[in-house]
Amino acid sequence: MKAEGKGEVKKEILIFGILWGPCRKGVVSASRAARGAAQVCAKGRVTASPCCAIPGGTSITLSCQLTAPRGCCWAAIFLNSSEQVRARGGSVSKTFLVTTHGRHNFICKCICGDKKNIVCGIDIHCGNPPDEPRNVSCIQKGTRGHATCSWHKGRLTYLHTAYEIELSNGTDAFSFPEETPSEDFGSGALSKLDFDSNYTVVVSASNPLGNASSQPLTFMLIDIVKPHPPEFSVEFDDSSATNCTIRWQDEAPAQHYRLRFRPLGRHGWSTVESFSREKYHLQGLEPDTAYEFQLSCRILPGRGLWSDWSSSQGSTPAAVPRVTLDVWYRQQELDSGHQNLSFFWKAPSRSEAGGRILGYTVTLEALGQGKLPAQSHRTTQTSFSRVTPRAAHRVTVTAQNPRGSSVPAAVLTHLGSPDLPPPQRVCAVGLGNSSILVSWSPPAGAALPVGGYVVEWAEPRREPRPQPQQGWLKLPPSRLSTVIAEHIRDNVCYQIHVSALYQGRAGQAASVRGNSTAQAPSAGPQMFATPWASGVLVSWEEIPAPQQRGCITGYHIYLHRRDGQGQPEVHGAGGWVTLVIICSFFVLSACLCSVPPARRLFQWLLSLLLPEWQSKAIPDPANATWAKSLAATKVN
After folding, report:
1. 3-state secondary structure 380-410
2. Which residue among 119, 216, 237, 264 is buried most deeply as judged by most CB within 10 Å?
3. CB count, 10 Å around CB of 187?
4. Confidence of residue 153 (pLDDT cuts 50, 70, 90)
5. How far apart, in whole angstroms, are the C-alpha atoms of residue 107 and residue 44?
6. CA nearest 311: which of 236, 375, 234?
7. Would the pTM count as exceeding 0.85?
8. Contact 622/589 with Cβ under 8 angstroms?
9. Where are the beta strands (DSSP E) in 170-264?
10. Cβ proximity of 75 and 103 under 8 Å
């Protein structure tokens, strides 16, 4: 290390010899560089003390002495091409405080008039001693390679700093230079290591301002070997759509493998580990699904570095659907000879369906109708409706995928319209977070046993909007409540129906409206008034659904005398959109109440001027004293 430092100083002096002219023998040696140095040239010499590598904040004294001062008017010192000081008499000197890191070029010049001739010069380097190398690590890629060590250098030194890797196995010591130097990180390759020895690595750093060494790193080769990614193949078995076999081979005798896999397009991985050297049987995959597989290995369990992941892709085959669809139906009598049958079922999960469902087959066979052939219909939907002759039917529904069909789900429809009462006391409570709690009581007086319940919900349809997305759940008879969250949005009113199932058939539905959350309506209704006998007929249009922001629970009509005398009358209209009020010379206003607590929003005020019954715009009644006095009044 020291010898290398001497060579560096001599190199620096040689460079200046080229720049400033022939140098005399006896230039200050490297051992004196910290105290001072002189650069001797043909026309003079420059001395610097201290020199030539200094830490920041050091004061240095520069002197310039001309060999032949005749013909030279001024001797001047320039720093990085900028004149700092000049003097007559063939010599000049000045002390400088150096605070900026990097190279500082001092030049002595002879000045006469406009002529400036270079006499000599010297470079001063301002920097830092090396930091202790940190985060030393060593790695060998593959069992047949060479180990490489790397480290973090710390702060910049701004000086030439030599780094060396010192390797010891307890008996012999070796040193290796830094390769491909960079400002922040260093690295270097070691000689070939063996698996039996314990090694210690220390990284040392040295520059003219100091030396530093890292903490020792001790390891065995097995601890730092990173195997190459293993090559592997994926074999699928047509007899089992959910299993596969992973087979691998690797140049290293690895004993520990980890395998991760996921369906393409998903984020999370499933991971398993294996201590086999050849294969792994993977189970529980989804049929008819494209998968991504990745494999990694290390030499010994619990020791060494994991290899990078190697990747492969493959698709599981489809399987015959092993699910029987859960079907229920509605039956509507149209006339004496026809009926409408509607059947509903849920799409099975991918694992139950054995893969992608291509469609469904619905077969209707009329019973007691002689030899009428059965009719089969294909659909890709999860519901099917058909007008049929008024007769009992045997209906089967099957699901198809590329490998075959599921076991048919059979339903028997019956003639007649037995009493199929609805559930009682249906209630909907908003839970927030896009969910609604629906509860009910069992039907009363049913002639048939209840086989379950169906809860359906949808946004109210308002033309010309498209058919709203409808959801439904089928529940066992023991369940008398459920939380619905599918397709539910906050601040939207939903129409909810609950029906009991009797032998697979849905009976009469009990309905209720509900919302997950609600806010005050963003607009009031448009109100109309029409003379009606001795009173006035007040009517209004329903607020558009986006402006309702929840379920409207009622309307309030405020009736007040135009002359301002007396207290206003408040009429509750519930969910009606018309109301007849007996009045003579009054002012009418309408407002809306959202879900409790009521939030009254006055939007319209209709002025009635008898006998013409002419409507006029009236200022917002919410600002009236009588309206404020009724802020806490609630009318049912």
Report:
1. CCCEEEEEEECCCEEEEEEEEECCEECCCEE
2. 119
3. 18
4. very high
5. 11
6. 234
7. no
8. no
9. 173-177, 185-189, 198-207, 210-213, 217-220, 225-226, 231-237, 240-249, 256-263
10. no
